[in-house]
Design brief:
With 252 residues, the chain is mainly alpha-helical. The protein folds into two domains: 7-184, no CATH class; 186-241. It is 77% helix and 0% strand. The chain has helices at residues 5-26, 28-40, 45-54, 58-69, 74-84, 87-99, 104-113, 116-120, 131-161, 172-182, 189-207, 213-242, 246-251. Helix 1 (5-26) packs parallel to helix 9 (131-161) and helix 3 packs antiparallel against helix 9 (131-161).
Length: 252
């Protein structure tokens, strides 16, 4: 029996919610950390809740809270959060061809919801193609937004009544989440080289107390991955040129 449009939409919405649910739950410690940290840094409850509601960027949110608490200049806050969130520019470029044909309301909505987690679920070649897949993306990204806000509110409440939660190591959830997102994407040698170089350099630069450690490690790692890809293509092209058919060999 064929599905009606309404049932198909509901099934796709359910699939989007369930596919994102493990990541929604995985960021619970991270969200609690953000909410409690804001309270510990003398943000009001309203300010602490407005941060995830408007910013919706975990790592940038954490850094911004610390910078604001330390009375950093507006230029420093904007530049730092811009650098941290610059990877979303690459996400946008990767999905540009798929999203540019959509109406403005879809592009703006998906652009706001395009987190690392939603991008990880967008690797399929048919992502964002057709209304059903758009519903999938909106429900998946929207559910993450709701859960992120919920965990932050939980952190705000916990930070108001419990001792300092920033010493519990909840920030480890950030690393765990990104590891879970990265591992499935390692499907070829260039990506493997990129991941290994980024991991090694990030640790090295951190030990060297280099301020832009993550940014520098990411840029160098991406360039190493690019060089590896170029090297592979060059070798493949050379092998193709050196492989001649019998008829070509006879003619030569």
């Amino acid at each position: 029996m064929a599905l009606t449009k309404k049932k198909a939409r509901l099934l796709m919405a359910k699939k989007g919610f369930l596919d994102m649910l493990p990541l929604n739950l995985a960021v619970l410690p991270w969200g609690i950390l953000c909410g409690s940290l804001a309270i510990q840094r003398d943000f009001s409850a309203l300010e602490a809740i407005l941060m995830p509601l408007v910013v919706f960027a975990g790592s940038a949110q954490l850094v911004a809270i610390e910078l604001i608490a330390n009375n950093a200049s507006l230029a420093t806050i904007l530049f730092t959060t811009f650098i941290i969130s610059s990877r979303h520019f690459l996400y946008g470029l990767a999905l540009r061809d798929k999203l540019k044909i959509l109406p403005t309301k879809w592009r703006y909505g998906l652009g706001f919801l395009l987190t690392d987690e939603l991008f990880a679920l967008s690797s399929h070649s048919k992502s964002f193609v057709g209304q059903l897949r758009l519903i999938y993306a909106v429900v998946a990204g929207g559910s993450f937004y709701v859960f992120w806000l919920l965990w932050n509110v939980t952190g705000v409440i916990a930070g108001s009544y419990l001792p300092d939660l920033t010493h519990l190591g909840l920030d480890f959830a950030i690393a765990v989440t990104f590891i879970a997102l990265v591992i499935p994407t390692i499907i070829n040698l260039p990506i493997l080289v990129t991941v290994i170089v980024a991991a090694l350099l990030s640790v090295l630069f951190k030990l060297m107390q280099f301020e832009l450690d993550l940014v520098a490690a990411a840029l160098i790692a991406m360039y190493c991955g690019y060089l590896t890809d170029r090297f592979q293509h060059k070798n493949t092209k050379d092998d193709d040129n050196n492989t001649l058919s019998p008829s070509v060999k006879d003619s030569t």
